[in-house]
């Protein structure tokens, strides 16, 4: 029933409403959105919906062109500026908007296009990391693994490449490479970013993972949270965070920041739940995910790590 009503609205009522508002306001739907919606996720999401529902063949061709560019990770540098400029020009032409009169609309639309297709490109960039397998024969991969150890355990040297010491930072066995299979290099890159960019919070979380009652495997939980962050990026839930946080073209760094927030907050949530043992991980993780997804439904949501030292 809900789908039928939405189909009816989209097919018949929406065009009539759009025509009426265009006649009465002198503004196209995209202009009304850019002038009327709050900057950030509410505006960008509304522009995204409007473009996706457009009946114009020129707009449809433009969207296919932008999708191709972002999917192939060619939306950057000089090309980014040219692509945004060309996309805005196409919309102005189709919608018969005078750029000299509506210069603010031109700027706002350009920002929306940058964020919408920057997000799509970010998915491609993160997927490339996820599908890159950890290679113990690769010097760069090995260096990052050692850097992770040094960030988390600066006062203790590794006895060797394969050692039980890796379990001290939450890997399952003597060789961490086997734990990266599901998320590939994305899992390592996320852990390394969290431990280097948020060193104090990361060590704080690591200390909680060593608790005799509420402890857990730091690295394994971190890789699980990489999977959660990736799912929310791919299904679009993370758009609220990205659109409200990014000041330029969304980058992998922004995804790492999103992940770092999730890890820090999951640790806080885990401690608050006071689990009996690690067997409660799945149920607590599901509740945590539900809370995060609910927060992201608010178009004004932003996430920042707020460090607070507690004793457990």
Automatic annotation (TrEMBL):
<keyword id="KW-0732">Signal</keyword>
<dbReference type="InterPro" id="IPR006816">
    <property type="entry name" value="ELMO_dom"/>
</dbReference>
<feature type="signal peptide">
    <location>
        <begin position="1"/>
        <end position="26"/>
    </location>
</feature>
<dbReference type="InterPro" id="IPR050868">
    <property type="entry name" value="ELMO_domain-containing"/>
</dbReference>
<feature type="domain" description="ELMO">
    <location>
        <begin position="140"/>
        <end position="296"/>
    </location>
</feature>
<protein>
    <recommendedName>
        <fullName>ELMO domain-containing protein</fullName>
    </recommendedName>
</protein>
<dbReference type="GO" id="GO:0005096">
    <property type="term" value="F:GTPase activator activity"/>
</dbReference>
<dbReference type="Pfam" id="PF04727">
    <property type="entry name" value="ELMO_CED12"/>
</dbReference>
């Amino acid at each position: 029933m809900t789908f039928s009503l939405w189909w009816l609205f989209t097919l018949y009522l929406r065009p009539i409403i759009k025509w009426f508002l265009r006649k009465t306001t002198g503004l196209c739907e995209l202009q009304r959105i850019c002038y009327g919606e709050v900057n950030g996720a509410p505006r960008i999401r509304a522009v995204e919906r409007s473009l996706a529902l457009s009946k114009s063949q020129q707009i449809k061709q433009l969207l296919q062109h932008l999708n191709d560019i972002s999917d192939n990770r060619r939306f950057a540098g000089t090309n980014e500026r040219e692509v945004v400029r060309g996309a805005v020009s196409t919309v102005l032409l189709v919608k018969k908007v005078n750029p000299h009169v509506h210069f603010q609309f031109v700027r706002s639309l350009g920002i929306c296009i940058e964020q919408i297709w920057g997000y799509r490109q970010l998915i491609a960039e993160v997927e490339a990391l996820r599908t890159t397998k950890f290679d113990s024969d690769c010097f760069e991969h090995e260096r990052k693994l050692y850097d992770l150890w040094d960030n988390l355990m600066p006062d203790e040297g590794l006895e060797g490449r394969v050692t039980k010491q890796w379990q001290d930072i939450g890997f399952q066995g003597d060789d961490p490479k086997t734990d990266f299979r599901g998320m590939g290099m994305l899992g390592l890159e996320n852990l390394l970013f969290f431990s280097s960019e948020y060193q104090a919070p990361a060590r704080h979380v690591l200390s909680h993972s060593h608790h005799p009652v509420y402890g857990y495997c730091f690295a394994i939980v971190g890789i699980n949270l990489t999977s959660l962050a990736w799912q929310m990026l791919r299904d679009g839930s993370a758009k609220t965070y990205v659109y409200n946080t990014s000041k330029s073209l969304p980058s992998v760094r922004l995804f790492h920041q999103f992940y770092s927030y999730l890890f820090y907050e999951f640790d806080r949530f885990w401690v608050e739940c006071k689990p009996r043992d690690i067997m409660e991980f799945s149920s607590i993780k599901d509740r945590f995910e539900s809370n995060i997804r609910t927060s992201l439904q608010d178009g004004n949501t932003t996430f920042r790590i707020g460090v607070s030292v507690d004793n457990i």
